[in-house]
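Something for you to look into today, if you have time. Could you write out one complete protein record for me, on any chain you like? Leave the record below and I will have a look.
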Amino acid sequence: FISLTASDGTSLSLEALRVRVVVEDPLAFTEVAMAFRNRDDRTIEAKFQILLPQLASLSRFAMKLEQGKWQEGEVVEKQKARRVYESYLRQSVDPALLE
């Protein structure tokens, strides 16, 4: 299950999906790269959802910006993350909040 939904409820189309798996017993490292397209002429806020297997955990979250640079995610306390996310929204910066 993968979805990206705009704040107005419309879905953004998944344009590309690439999955790479490396097995190092007893673990498997899976990299999932997705590209979504915003067909609007405006900046939108969207909610990304992905269903992980029961014992899976996230070790990296990054977003590729228009300039081709990567914006790395950082794990912080939940309330602090929400405050930072909201402040970036007001600055028109591309934030991401992982819950």
Observations:
- The chain has a mean pLDDT of 83.
- The CA atoms of residues 61 and 84 lie 16 Å apart.
